[in-house]
Structures are given as C-alpha cells and as structure tokens.
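Here is the promised in-class demo. Please do not try to memorize the tokens; focus on the logic of going from shape to residues.
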C-alpha cells in the first residue's frame, strides 16, 4: 500500500527492445481515459487523497488494484488489474463489481473493461461515512473470482480523508502490469513440499533390447517398390519395406539365399541355448546379471536376423530386370532413417532403414564414481532433455530400475545405471541426452521454489519476490537440496511469498535501468 503518486514508467529499452502495444505506461491519452492513479477529484483541482494498492490472489487470478481512501459522496476510482495465473495473461473479458457492506447498507458499483486489456474501471461512491467491508468480484466466461479487500473507513469529507494514515511501501523494483502481460512472465508461491536428497548426472536415451533394427543392403543393386516408407512412418515387424534388384553379377541364387537362412537359423539356435543356460546359472548366482542381459540382446538380434533371412528366402519375388530381394522390417516401430528411394542405386552394406520402437525406452545414467555407493537407495529419477518437459521416472508409475554396471569407465570415471520406462506420447527419442537428478533415500519436507526462479548473479543465488502487483524485491537466498525442478530455500524467502519463475531476468534488467519514473500509465 503506497501513498498516491505518479505511476512509474520503465524505459522500454531495458526489456530487450520489446515493442508493447495499447495503453502502456508512456501512453498519453486525452480526456477521462488518461490519468495518473491518485485521488479522484485531483482533476478538479482538489488535492490527491492517500491511496492504497493491495495485491490479492484468489480463484486462479491475481488482483492488483489502486484506489484512493473512501469519502462519503465522492467517487474513488479503482484501477483494477486482473491477471490469469495460468499463463500470466491479462483478463480480457467479463465485468467487475465493488461491493461495500456496512455503513449505508450494502452498496454495489459495477464496472467495465477499459480499452486496455486486463484493466477494469469502477468508481464506487459511498453513501455514508463509517466502516465498510470492501469486496471486489469478477465474473466472466471462465468463471467467477471474489477478492476481499478488508475493512475500510469511509471518511465524512475530503479534509478528514487527507489525514488518513496508510502504510507505506518498502520500495522495490517497478515492473508494470502492461510489461508483465506482454512478455513471458510468471510467479509461483513458495510452499513447503517433500524434497529428496540426491545428485546430478548425465543421461542418454536408448532403445530397449529388440526395440531397434537396421536394414542394410545385402548386395549392390537398385531399390524398387511402390510403397517405399518415409521417415516417421510406423511399420510392423516382418513388413516388406522395399525390394532390391541385385547388380548384374551378384550372387543371389536360390542356394545362396538358402545358405544365408541356415546360417541365421544356426546362430539363432546357439544364442537361444546360451541364454537358457545363463538364466539357469543366474538363478544359482553363478554369473552376473550383466551376462544375461548381453545374452538377451544377442538372442534378440539373432532372432531378427533369422526372420529377415527367412523372409528373403520365402518372399523373394521377380522384380524389374531380375530377381528383387525383399527388404523386411526387423522390428516394429517408427522409421527413423530411410536412405534412397525407388530407382536409386545402393552399395553392398549401405544402411537403408533404421527402425526404432519408442513406445518403451531406456535411460542410461552416467553416475559419477563418488556417488556409486548411493545407487542401492535410488527412489526415482528426474530426466530433462532440451526442448522436452522434464520427466519423473519412478517405480510407482511404471518405471523399472534395472540396476548399475559392475565397472567404472576408465576415462569418464562413471558407472552406468539403467532405467526402463514407458514413452506413450513419443516425446522422447532414442539418442536424446540431458541432465539427470537421481533421488535417493526418503523425502523430507522443506520450503521449496521452482529452480527456474534462481538467478546466478556474481556467484550469488538470487530470486525476485513479488512485493506488490508491480513491485519486486531482490533477495539473496540460501539453497538446500535440489530435487528435479524444485530447490529447497533455507533462507531469504518466506512461505507464502511469490517468486518470479519466468521472466526474472527482465525484472533484473528493470532494476539496473536507473531510469527515474516520469508519469503514470493510462487506463
């Protein structure tokens, strides 16, 4: 709450050259539409009354309202700023009403949206002096919100109103609503929450065993096919992708195809038998789990090779200019690479298709050797890849902690830790890399804010706290546990205070602008 004074205006150059439209702080309008916030009646030569500027959050909205102390028989202009907290956008529809209850009975005063989106005009004129309860109600297509402004005194005349004592603001960095609404901006309340201890690492997304396949040209030749698959197309295991007409002189006789099939069958039988043997030894703790995983991958690859060889043997058809070898999808999934097309000449061994099943993936975390001893207590894992929403992988939601490797990489000095998880939306791709936060042990409660609120200023952790609708305070904070997207605050912020989580760097620029406010903004 601040005494009436001309509204601050921040130089727009400090917000990276933003070009804001409409009724901004520097707009000068003529007539009743343009005014500085202060006591109603100032335009008529009367002195400005003391004014209030509370900020209230309720029902998914933020209200910032400026108004002069109330006087019986005199209008008090309420400069009402309404913001949707979800997306932090100006409220551009609906109506507001100021309700006074107490001296003079219940009095209602309606208001309308001004030409500036987000700002509503209402000018209650109390009937009688005395104490009243003040409420402001917004009704719109998206619902209703009620803001309780508390008890106020309605003064009998202007002379008495000029003696009103109102709390003074503690200062701060001015950043107007019209600026906030026109840039990516947002705030969040600091609240206690369960936080895990843990450590940061690096991770990469991999396909599960048997969830990735590559189709290579068995011989040099020419591609053919009327339904050549495109990148992004979903194919099924065993589906014919294209045909390959061998180059003249290539050995693709019936005997060669049959020989390739027999080789693939023998390899399949061998890897399957080896896998069965190792599983039995694992049950007796005679071999490490890693050996079984490697054997599983070998068996899956051999099975895929057998199916391809069988398809070549069974589905070879006559193509243009000779026999065409059927190129078969080794796995079901999405085509990630499709090299060439009908009529294109390819070399022997050239990769033609890369197919990946992304419905279920693995995250391989490279854990620093200093943290390897904590892997037995892993509770869950956060993963953040560039451009993809952060993902919490925990056993209660389908993720599987597959365990850690048995050796430290000699150069990276890390231990691999595997997590398998479902990827129903397909947002993550094989090869994605990013930061990992490994949560260990049990959670404990602490005051937390989103990590995006932190600003590194000369080695200090700084946040910007919203002290009022258009005022912000710079605070140096002490940081505790980091838990994925959240960070514990040990000091510098109190529970219930709102911190800037999006656009904090713009508030910082406003603080360093050094510009002196000149005039108010038009409504």
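The designed amino acids, position by position:
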């Amino acid at each position: 709450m601040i005494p009436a004074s001309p509204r601050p205006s921040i130089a727009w150059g400090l917000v990276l050259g933003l070009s804001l439209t409409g009724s901004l702080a520097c707009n000068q309008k003529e007539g009743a539409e343009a005014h500085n916030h202060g006591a109603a009646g100032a335009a008529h030569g009367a002195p400005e009354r003391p004014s209030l500027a509370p900020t209230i959050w309720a029902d998914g909205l933020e209200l910032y309202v400026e108004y002069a102390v109330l006087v019986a028989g005199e209008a008090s202009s309420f400069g009402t700023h309404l913001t949707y907290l979800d997306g932090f956008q100006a409220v551009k529809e609906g109506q507001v009403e100021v309700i006074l209850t107490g001296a003079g009975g219940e009095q209602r005063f309606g208001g309308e949206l001004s030409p500036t989106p987000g700002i509503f005009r209402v000018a209650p004129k109390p009937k009688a002096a005395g104490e009243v309860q003040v409420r402001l109600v917004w009704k719109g297509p998206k619902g209703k919100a009620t803001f309780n402004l508390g008890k106020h005194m309605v003064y009998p005349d202007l002379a008495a109103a000029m003696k009103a004592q109102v709390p003074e603001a503690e200062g701060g960095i001015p950043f107007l609503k019209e600026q906030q609404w026109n840039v990516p901006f947002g705030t969040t309340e600091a609240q206690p929450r369960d936080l895990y201890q843990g450590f940061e690492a690096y991770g990469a997304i991999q396909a599960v065993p048997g969830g990735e396949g590559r189709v290579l040209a068995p011989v040099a030749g020419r591609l053919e096919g009327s339904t050549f698959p495109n990148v992004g197309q979903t194919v099924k295991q065993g589906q014919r992708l294209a045909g390959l007409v061998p180059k003249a002189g290539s050995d693709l006789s019936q005997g060669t195809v049959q020989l390739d099939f027999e080789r693939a069958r023998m390899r399949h039988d061998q890897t399957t038998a080896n896998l069965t043997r190792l599983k039995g030894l694992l049950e007796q703790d005679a071999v490490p789990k890693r050996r079984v995983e490697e054997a599983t991958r070998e068996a899956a690859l051999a099975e895929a090779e057998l199916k391809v060889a069988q398809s070549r043997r069974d589905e070879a058809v006559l193509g243009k200019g000779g026999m065409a070898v059927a190129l078969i999808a080794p796995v079901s999934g999405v085509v990630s690479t499709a090299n060439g097309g009908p009529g294109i000449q390819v070399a022997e061994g050239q990769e033609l298709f890369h197919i990946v099943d992304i419905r279920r993936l693995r995250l391989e975390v490279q854990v620093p050797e200093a943290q390897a001893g904590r892997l037995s207590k892993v509770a869950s894992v956060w993963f953040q890849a560039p451009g993809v929403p952060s993902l919490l992988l925990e056993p209660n939601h389908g993720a599987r902690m597959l365990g850690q490797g048995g050796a430290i990489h000699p150069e990276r000095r890390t231990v691999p830790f595997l997590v398998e998880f479902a990827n129903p939306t397909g947002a993550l791709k094989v090869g994605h890399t990013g930061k990992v936060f490994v949560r260990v042990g049990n959670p404990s409660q602490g005051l937390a804010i989103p990590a995006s609120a932190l600003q590194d200023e000369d080695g200090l952790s700084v946040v910007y706290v919203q002290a009022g609708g258009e005022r912000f305070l710079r605070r140096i904070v002490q940081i505790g546990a980091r838990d994925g997207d959240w960070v514990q605050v040990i000091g510098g912020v109190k529970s219930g205070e709102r911190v800037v989580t999006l656009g904090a760097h713009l508030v910082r620029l406003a603080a360093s602008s050094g510009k002196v406010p000149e005039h108010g903004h038009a409504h």
